Amino acid sequence: MSWDCPGGTDCADGDYNTNPGIDMPSAIAIQGPTAPNTNLYDKNCDGTVQEETPVLNCGLGCNSNILGFQSHVDCGVTGTLGHCAAITCQWTPESPGKSKQQKCL
Fold it and tell me: Over the stretch 25-38, which tens digit does the pLDDT of each residue have?
């Protein structure tokens, strides 16, 4: 239901790929008008933006099986992927180099 209607939860009436039922992250910002205070990457209209690829916090007890970014990467922007090295627990870029566009929901 449109955000213009009382109780409406759809935050972008003109964007078919933006509504409370969306569960697929996207790198494309909301298209068209939005409800007031809507983040352009809040594709499921829940008031928050969930990033698909995490920032890795390498440290004691790190998990070397998870890929992620070394620092924050904005939605729609491409960043270098890496992992926490098993022995040193320091962020290490993938070899050969891999990058990924940050998708958000």
Answer: 999 999 999 999 99
The CA–CA distances, whole Å, from 41 to 24, 37, 56, 70, 89 equal 12, 12, 21, 21, 32
3-state secondary structure of 26: strand
Token pair recorded at residue 55? 């920032």
Question: What does the block give as tokens for 13?
Answer: 């009436």
Q: What is the largest CA-CA distance in the chain?
A: 56
Question: Which tokens is 47 given?
Answer: 């008031």
Q: What is the pTM of this model?
A: 0.86
3-state secondary structure (DSSP) of residue 80: strand
Could you tell me the residue ranges of all domains in the chain? 1-50, 52-105
Beta bridge partners of 2: 10
Cβ proximity of 42 and 48 under 8 Å = yes
